[in-house]
Amino acid sequence: MSTTDLAALSGLELMRWIQSARPTDAVTPSIGRLLGMRFDEVEHGRMVISLDTRPDFANPLGIVHGGIAATLLDSVMGCAVHTTLPAGVGYTTLELKVNYIRAAHTGGQTLTAEGTVIHVGRSTATAEGKVLDEQGKLIAHATTTCLVMRPGGN
């Protein structure tokens, strides 16, 4: 699908297209390729994204760097917001608040993040998210505020 074709998709359609795309497709978000993110569930106002930890994710203490959870949360909450937006309308993160609960290990454990929209207005949107490990234990949770960017300004 061309970039022009992608621009004509609603946010929900775009997220579903990314979900079905091959990981090597050029338009798959590069941060997703870099971290090995999988779009597991895509619904209006809700996203589930997972990844498998690896040694490259380690901080100096040998556990998963907090930036991995923050990036996963920023992605899942932002994508949840995007699913509510019409074609031609974008968003960007204005604020991200992350609470870390426990460490994740680098040995190939699956981390699953769920993002849910709280509110979408004309110029801002809010969402919440959480990251769970394979045992369903909470790793981190977050909230975000996103700027909704409409053609011609807000």
Automatic annotation (TrEMBL):
The keyword Hydrolase is annotated on this UniProt entry: yes
Pfam families per the UniProt record, alphabetical: 4HBT (PF03061)
Keywords attached to this entry: Hydrolase
SUPFAM superfamilies per record: Thioesterase/thiol ester dehydrase-isomerase
Example GO molecular function: 1,4-dihydroxy-2-naphthoyl-CoA thioesterase activity
Keyword Hydrolase included in the entry's annotation: yes
InterPro entries: HotDog_dom_sf, PAAI_dom, Thioestr_dom
Record-annotated Thioesterase domain positions: 62-139
Record's GO cellular component terms: cytosol
Name of the molecule in the record: Thioesterase domain-containing protein
Organism: Streptomyces fuscichromogenes
